[in-house]
Amino acid sequence: MTEPTTEANRPNHIVWDWNGTLLHDIDAVITATNASFAELGFAPITLETYRDLYVVPVPKFYERLMGRLPTDEEWVVMDEAFHRHYWAAAAGAALAEGARELLHEWQRGGLTQSLLSLAPHEKLVPLVQAHGIDRHFLRVDGRIGPSHTSKAGHLVRHLAALDGTGVTAGRTVLIGDAVDDALAAAHVGARAVLYTGGSHSRSSLESAGVPVVDTLAEAVRTARELAE
User: Is the pTM for the entire model greater than 0.85?
Assistant: First the structure.
């Protein structure tokens, strides 16, 4: 049963995902994925196949594609190749449509937001700064540690770092593009809205049992509606 919304649990904070959500980088992702496959002699995949099969942790995604988990040696090669090709392409990726304006409007309304990504922290921060949107966030956190992790533990760390700012899990909405985002939100007691512009197909996102939208404007509107 859904808990009634009261002033005490009304959402007032958004945790934004980066890749595939604020950053429209799906073309860079497909390019990098196929480049990493090519280095091991695997056939390229389409965007549709990627969205149908993508899952976090990433080795499970490769298992769906290959019919088995990659060996430790294959994982090292594929992970290194993906990131090498991805970061070369990501420099040219633009923000998602309307993202800059939505960040400004949410902040102007006296509400808060932060950014949490599974992209490496040392790569993430300069890219967010290069897009000129870092001023909108209380905090920007990328992944620290191995790349084959899910977001739940990182979200725990992220919210703990926001302690003292007025941000609580019960009043937070995570906006992302992956089922893993919804699982992470549920893990900490936050809400989630999933966006179809990134890594997952709509059908796979709907399996998470949270609102699914086609634009970031709808995502923010849905976050506001959760407060009504």
Answer: yes
Specify the amino acid at residue 178: A
Under a CB-based contact definition with an 8 Å cutoff, are residues 82 and 10 in contact?
no
Write down the pLDDT at residue 227: 60
Q: What is the pLDDT of residues 150-205, one digit of tens each?
A: 899 999 999 999 999 999 999 999 999 999 999 999 999 999 999 999 989 999 99
**Rounded distance between C-alpha atoms, residue 34 and residue 37, angstroms:** 5
- CA-CA distance, 118 to 134, in Å (whole number)? 17
Size of the chain in residues: 228
Determine whether 209 is exposed, middle or buried from the number of CB atoms within 10 Å of its CB (0-12, 13-18, 19+). Answer: exposed
Q: What secondary structure, in 3-state letters, does the chain show?
A: CCCCCCCCCCCCEEEECCECCCEECHHHHHHHHHHHHHHCCCCCCCHHHHHHHCCCCHHHHHHHHHCCCCCHHHHHHHHHHHHHHHHHHHCCCEECCCHHHHHHHHHHCCCEEEEEEEEEHHHHHHHHHHCCCHHHCCCEEEECCCCCCCCHHHHHHHHHHCCCCCCCHHHEEEEECCHHHHHHHHHHCCEEEEECCCCCCHHHHHCCCCCEECCHHHHHHHHHHCCC
* Encoded amino acid at 157, one letter: R
Which residues, given as ranges, of the chain have pLDDT below 70?
1-9, 227-228
